[in-house]
Specification:
The protein is of the alpha/beta class and 284 residues long. It folds into two domains: 9-229, TIM Barrel (Alpha-Beta Barrel); 234-278, no CATH class. Helix content is 45%, strand content 15%. It has helices spanning 18-21, 45-61, 78-85, 101-113, 128-132, 134-138, 150-157, 169-182, 197-210, 221-229, 234-252, 267-278, and strands spanning 9-14, 31-35, 66-69, 92-95, 120-125, 143-148, 186-188, 214-217, 258-260, 263-265. The chain has an eight-stranded parallel β-barrel, surrounded by five helices. Helix 2 links the parallel strand 2 and strand 3 (66-69). The longest helix is centred in the last third of the chain and has 19 residues, at 234-252. The protein is elongated and about 65 Å long. The two termini are 19 Å apart.
Length: 284
């Protein structure tokens, strides 16, 4: 099964907009989603899938990690999306609104019929049922990643989206936890107000703190913000190095906990510092 590479930033582009798609190799995103679902109207589904199939090889040749988002299993377009819209060069397919293991099994069967047995699934967890059953869904062997879709989730819940994100905190954290237990990278919700970099930076920092691997981007201006957010700053790395030096010196002297700059540090905090030092740019 193919595995995803680094996914700090995932830029979504409508498959019916070749003028957008041809620019993707210049956007510096870790991965790109060619969207045949929400960004493609019903009367253009065939155009979208055919564009995706045609454009993927060129994007991959230009250095892009490409994922194609097909329509949900329950729709009339799903089978054709897999059969004619997915090129073998893709890193994975995105299966939106996953709610059951049967959905993923259906994708597995469709990929087999299309002679794409090594292509995995990025599961979209964006309904109440999908989020509630996230742990078992992400444990499916075909799943190589997942994303949390806040807008669809709240629509399904009958709630109201707010800038605070308080209404999605539990669901958002739950998806990150399920991904950690399954060992697959998770992608955080989109920021629909693409002109507000401060909101994006805040959400990206929250996502990294929760354990997300990256963030979905709906505008090229969000890509560099995401890339930066999921790499520790020089200040963070410096502190992590100093903390580990002090902790390891104390450990050799038989101490299991130390006072480091006014903070009690033991093995869990040392493990967090080691993690910071593994997140060097280009390594994940």
């Amino acid at each position: 099964m193919k595995q995803l590479a680094r996914v700090r930033s995932v830029l979504i582009a409508p498959a019916v907009r070749p003028d957008f798609v041809v620019k993707l190799p210049t956007r510096n995103a870790d991965a790109v989603f060619l969207d045949c679902e929400d960004a493609v109207p019903a009367n253009a589904k065939e155009e979208g899938r055919l564009n995706a199939r045609r454009m993927v090889p060129d994007l991959v040749a230009a250095g892009c990690q490409v994922v194609v988002r097909v329509n949900p299993v329950s729709t009339e377009w799903f089978e054709a999306d897999i059969a004619t819209g997915v090129a073998p060069e893709v890193a994975a397919v995105v299966l939106p609104k996953v709610e059951s293991l049967a959905d993923i099994d259906a994708a597995a069967a469709a990929l087999q019929r299309a002679s794409l047995p090594t292509v995995g699934v990025v599961a979209g967890l964006e309904t109440a049922l999908g989020v509630a059953d996230a742990r078992q869904l992400l444990a499916h062997p075909l799943v190589v990643g997942a994303y949390f879709g806040a807008e669809d989730f709240i629509a399904d819940m009958g709630g109201v989206r707010t800038q605070s994100n308080a209404e999605v905190h539990c669901a958002r954290s739950g998806v990150a936890l399920a991904g950690r237990l399954a060992g697959v990278p998770t992608l955080d919700q989109v920021v629909t107000n693409f002109g507000d970099s401060e909101i994006f930076e805040l959400e990206a920092a929250e996502a990294r703190n929760m354990g997300y691997a990256g963030k979905m981007c709906i505008h090229p201006a969000q890509v560099e913000l995401a890339n930066k957010a999921f790499i520790p700053s020089a200040k963070e790395r410096d502190r992590a190095r100093r903390l580990l030096d002090a902790y390891e010196t104390a450990s050799r002297d038989g101490l299991a906990a130390i006072n480091f700059e006014g903070q009690m540090v033991d093995e869990p905090l040392a493990a967090q510092a080691r993690r910071v030092l593994t997140l060097q740019e280009g390594n994940e």
